[in-house]
Amino acid sequence: MIYLDHNATTPVDERVLEAMLPFLSTFFGNPSGLYRLGRIVRSAIDQARQQLADLVSVSPEQIIFTSGGTEANHLALSQAEMSAQLWISAIEHPSVLETAKRYYPQFSELLVDVSGKVEIDQFAELNFKENDFISVMSANNETGVVQDIASLTASVKQQGVIFHTDAVQALGKIPLSFNDLGVQLMSLSSHKIYGPKGSGALVFEKGFNVQPVLVGGGQEFDCRSGTENVAGIVGFGKAAELAKQAIEEFQTILTLRDCLEQQLALIPGVVIFARDENRLPNTVQFAILGVDGEMLLMQLDRNNIAVSSGSACASGGGEVSSVLLAMGVDPQLAKGAIRVSLGRQNTESDIEAFIAVLKEIISQI
User: Fold this and answer.
1) Which residues make Cβ contacts (< 8 Å) with residue 45, sequence separation at least 6?
2) If 281 and its partner were Cys, which of 91, 254, 308, 309 is the partner (CB 3.0–4.6 Å)?
3) Residue 313 known to be catalytic
4) Distance CA 31, CA 219 (A)
5) Which is catalytic among the residues 84, 120, 313, 357?
6) What is the pLDDT of residues 244-287, one digit of tens each?
7) Shared-domain flag, residues 161 and 81
8) Is the pTM of this model over 0.85?
């Protein structure tokens, strides 16, 4: 199979699996235990926390491990005061948008331009008040567009707002420094960086008093109770360590992405979304005029090629991308959207095979 859906999930790196295995067998102790086996497991969690902290340039005590990016986003939004105004960008992941709809039905939507970016000048003119809560993702999971988070936070620094960014897709693909972004909260996930599913984290600014959603035994600095997913956390830490070492690999992936886009542009009717914007080096979202995206996805699957029609976390099928609609893309064109997201193991021959199969499918329509 030619796997071109790395924004949905990545395969677990063999070195990550090797680091995890002892904590699924030999070192099975509860990290809250005071005996030797518990202390060994606790030490492994501490090491993983340090590894992740090094990747995003924070202190380890600023990291709360969660069950994934969705829980991290939920925990982040739960920090918004009910009396404050919640502002959510129109291109957020469903785990942010749906949480906002359920608990803060009066939230305000931050509009984006045709490239999918929050416009800084318009953003700065909005009437934010102290303790307002703002959530804007660092990089979009569908288009790959990278937001200028640092400029957004700088423009509201004096207004006393709480700023959260979902950095799940940005982590490991572009340099990511929590302090440089100027945010108070940042969500991360393991399985986007060749780590295991079921492990994520919320990073918080020093001095920020995180209020727990899950209460009980007081694990994770009393911010997220529940016995820790030790193997998952260890795997996340190892994946973070490897990601820090391998950030330069994405220059090679960028070259592959450019090659893919050059060949796509030669196909009549192809529209590449946000092509001229700063995007993740591995992500291409496109549509072909008059071609249904779900049909195209299934035809590619029959040819052993895995791509996505949008967010892998959106429920149901045949739905038009809310991200593209927010960008003003015609609904019929948006319905045909296909996302290709490249990874470490992809090669130029994968691109050539994809393009050849794509052309063959189109010729038969």
Assistant:
1) 31, 65, 228, 230, 233, 234
2) 254
3) yes
4) 10
5) 313
6) 999 888 889 999 999 999 999 999 999 999 999 999 999 999 99
7) yes
8) yes
